[in-house]
Design a protein that fits this description.
Layout: H1 3-13, H2 24-32, E1 42-46, H3 54-61, E2 64-69, H4 72-84, E3 91-95, E4 108-114, H5 122-129, E5 133-146, H6 153-162, E6 167-168, H7 169-178, E7 181-188, H8 191-212, H9 216-231, E8 235-244
Parallel strand pairs: 1-2, 1-4, 2-3, 4-5, 5-6
Antiparallel strand pairs: 5-8, 7-8
Length: 249
């Protein structure tokens, strides 16, 4: 994606409830799969956007959450939301690139990455983020995958350009295990998460077009929605709840 296109897309997402498919219930469902023995005091939320998951993580775990995103306006919105919910002292925002893992600290009990690992490559993310966890810490990540062996050609052609490294569920689970994580649980995000995400895009996208005129990136966003509506049974997000394997095992 060109830099100008990314800027235009970020502008649209500044005014959306979420920056990708997900929901409060999906975040809580993943939290319920964490082991009871895991003490969650420090959380790293990577690609947090405007805080759709960050707020839930802070409220439900009682932990301190370091929320990381590359786009400062997203973080400004998150800080305002945290202030409104009385969470300002439990959420720290950091404008940084997720690929630069060493700048983010270490010893986190939990790393959260909803819909963001693809931006630096799924396997690369697993490797780069693992050293940030404390021993036996957990990683929760959602990843776009194929649900069927033979996806519709329309969907396959679209993602060949948008996400050429897209794989199936078994492949991603195998890669997580190869990166020395145990799989604690997994589930597919429900279609309702996708429908709510696209519904939240409608007004901001119309507003962007009225101000900026028709742009290729806006057309691509509408095409993405049309493909999901036609072929959504063939692909979607898989949530993986992972725990770092001790080095001695």
């Amino acid at each position: 994606m060109e830099a100008d296109d990314l800027t235009l897309l970020f502008e649209v997402f500044e005014n959306t409830p979420r920056q990708g498919p997900g929901s409060v219930e999906t975040t809580r469902r993943a939290l319920r799969l964490l082991p009871d023995s895991l003490r969650v005091e420090r959380v790293l939320d990577l690609g947090c956007g405007t805080g759709g998951s960050t707020i839930v993580l802070a409220e439900d775990t009682g932990a301190h959450v370091t929320a990381v995103d590359i786009h400062p306006p997203f973080l400004a919105t998150l800080r305002a939301r945290a202030e409104e919910r009385g969470l300002a002292d439990r959420i720290t925002t950091v404008a940084a690139d997720m690929a630069n893992a060493t700048s983010l600290g270490a010893g986190f009990d939990l790393i959260w990455a909803e819909g963001s690992a693809y931006s630096i490559g799924f396997e690369n993310a697993l490797r780069r983020w693992r050293p940030l966890l404390r021993p036996a810490g957990c990683l929760v990540v959602t990843e776009l995958v194929w649900f069927v062996a033979e996806p519709a050609e329309r969907a396959r052609a679209f993602f060949a350009g948008e996400y050429p490294d897209m794989r199936d569920e078994a492949t991603r689970i195998g890669q997580a295990r190869s990166a020395r994580y145990d799989l604690l649980g997994s589930f597919r995000l429900p279609a309702d998460d996708w429908h709510a995400y696209y519904a939240g895009l409608e007004a901001p996208l119309r507003d962007a077009i009225s101000r900026r005129g028709e742009r290729e990136i806006y057309a691509a966003t509408r095409l993405e929605r049309a493909i999901y509506e036609a072929c959504g049974d063939d692909y979607g997000y898989l949530c993986l709840v992972l725990q770092a394997v001790a080095a001695s095992t």
